[in-house]
């Protein structure tokens, strides 16, 4: 094989994998909550880092046979105390160990807050999936699955889709795992196609769940969604569905964005036209349904509901003073820094924190796993009714904690989740 003819740039491993702004944010949030709740220092130190972390490098053969690229992959299990671990797999060129560890930690608190029988996990491959053909994506996925196959399993660790992955990727993971054990194991992943045992409503569950919570927050704030305006940052799966469900409540969507641009229309954006445009062109750039603005400008638009559903660290101490909304509904992971939290709390912005706001996805993933293990399927109405019930319960517990401890909603959600994990660890004790 002639490796000298390839023109693929090698992807090098960062020198300091743990050094990640996202992991630093996750740890600082945890430490702040631990201090407020006077968490036992032994448990605090134990929860500060993941229990298991696997980093792999493996070859990915391109369609041109001589081109072979070494890529890096990760699977992190934050805590094994609560049951099997649960968390998505993302394909993105900026994935590193710190980012995956942060997402696994947040997943632990999220599952505990929602009373799901899981610990948090996350995985990823550092590659741009948009640069891969379908055969290349399949080869990458199957090889990565083999690299982590001893770590995952329906009773050990259950992957799901995340940024850059989808139901098809989950189908390939399920098939690869099933080939290894010799029989079909649909419950090894969630978020897979319906025909392979996927749950109806799973694809839109994160966006739908976020809006169920917005409805509860609006009641608390005495805000009528039908008379409200909203801005949604991010037009992927979460942001697009959040915008659709907000519009169904009668909310006027005045701003949306993706990585290419932001679109602002004070009279309301025609979401159907925007979705069709993105399906045809891949991005919002060039859509004539409003004025093009930057993502930075989009976040500062005056609105009732602001939903950051894109990337982390979007709302910081630099722009928090100028955020002009009543409800901040986090669909993304880690979109707001701790410094920005303090500013927003002082300004009276009501926060739906990420570990609550985007918990709809893992909740319906839990439903899918339960249905697979029982070999039984729920209807969409049953799924949505159970999702709303669980999210409303978590919202009310978080709100009560916030009022009882005089902390913002993020700290309240963290305290609820961390407290449940700490109780479980104390009850299980230490082996040997």
Write up this protein.
- With 432 residues, the chain is an alpha/beta fold.
- The chain folds into two domains: 3-184, Leucine Dehydrogenase, chain A, domain 1 (Rossmann fold), CATH 3.40.50.10860; 205-357, 3-Layer(aba) Sandwich (Rossmann fold).
- Helix content is 44%, strand content 16%.
- It is built from 14 helices and twelve strands.
- Strand 6 (229-233), helix 7 (237-248) and strand 7 (252-257) form a beta-alpha-beta unit.
- The longest helix is centred in the last third of the chain and has 26 residues, at 380-405.
- It is globular, with a radius of gyration of 21 Å.
- The N and C termini lie far apart (51 Å).
Short account of what is shown:
With 432 residues, this protein is an alpha/beta fold. The protein is built from 14 helices and twelve strands.
């Amino acid at each position: 094989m002639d490796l000298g003819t390839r023109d693929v740039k090698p992807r090098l491993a960062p020198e300091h994998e743990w050094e990640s702004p996202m992991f630093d944010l996750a740890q600082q949030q945890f430490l702040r909550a631990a201090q407020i709740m006077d968490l036992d220092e032994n448990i605090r130190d134990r929860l500060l880092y993941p229990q298991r972390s696997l980093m792999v490098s493996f070859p990915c053969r391109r369609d041109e046979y001589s081109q072979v690229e070494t890529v890096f992959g990760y699977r992190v299990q934050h805590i094994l105390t609560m049951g099997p671990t649960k968390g998505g797999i993302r394909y993105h060129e900026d994935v590193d160990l710190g980012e995956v560890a942060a997402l696994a930690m947040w997943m632990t608190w999220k599952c505990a807050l929602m009373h799901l029988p899981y610990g948090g996990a996350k995985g990823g491959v550092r590659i741009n999936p948009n640069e891969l053909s379908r055969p290349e994506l399949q080869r990458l996925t199957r090889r990565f699955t083999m690299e982590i196959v001893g770590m995952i399993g329906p009773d050990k660790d259950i992957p799901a889709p995340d940024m850059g992955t989808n139901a098809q990727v989950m189908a390939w993971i399920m098939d690869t795992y099933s080939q290894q054990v010799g029989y079909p194991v649909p419950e090894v992943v969630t978020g897979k196609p319906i025909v392979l045992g996927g749950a109806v409503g799973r694809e839109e569950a994160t966006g739908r769940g976020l809006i169920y919570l917005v409805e509860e927050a609006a009641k608390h704030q005495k805000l009528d969604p039908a008379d409200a305006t909203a801005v949604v940052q991010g037009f992927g799966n979460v942001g697009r569905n959040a915008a659709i469900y907000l519009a169904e409540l009668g909310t006027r969507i005045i701003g949306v964005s993706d990585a290419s641009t932001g679109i602002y229309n004070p009279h309301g954006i025609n979401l159907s036209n925007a979705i069709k445009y993105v399906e045809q062109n891949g991005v919002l750039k060039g859509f004539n349904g409003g004025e093009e603005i930057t993502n930075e400008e989009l976040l500062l638009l005056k609105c009732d509901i602001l939903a950051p559903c894109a990337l982390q660290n979007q709302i910081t101490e630099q722009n928090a003073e100028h955020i002009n909304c009543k409800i901040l509904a986090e669909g993304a992971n880690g979109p707001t820094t701790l410094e920005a939290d303090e500013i927003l709390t002082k300004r009276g912005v009501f926060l739906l924190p990420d570990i609550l706001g985007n918990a709809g996805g893992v909740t319906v993933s839990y439903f899918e796993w339960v249905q697979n293990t029982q070999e039984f399927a729920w209807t969409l109405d049953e799924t949505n009714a159970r999702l709303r019930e669980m999210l409303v319960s978590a919202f009310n517990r978080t709100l009560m904690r916030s009022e009882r401890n005089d902390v913002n909603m993020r700290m309240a959600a963290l305290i609820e989740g961390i407290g449940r994990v700490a109780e479980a660890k104390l009850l299980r004790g230490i082996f040997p």
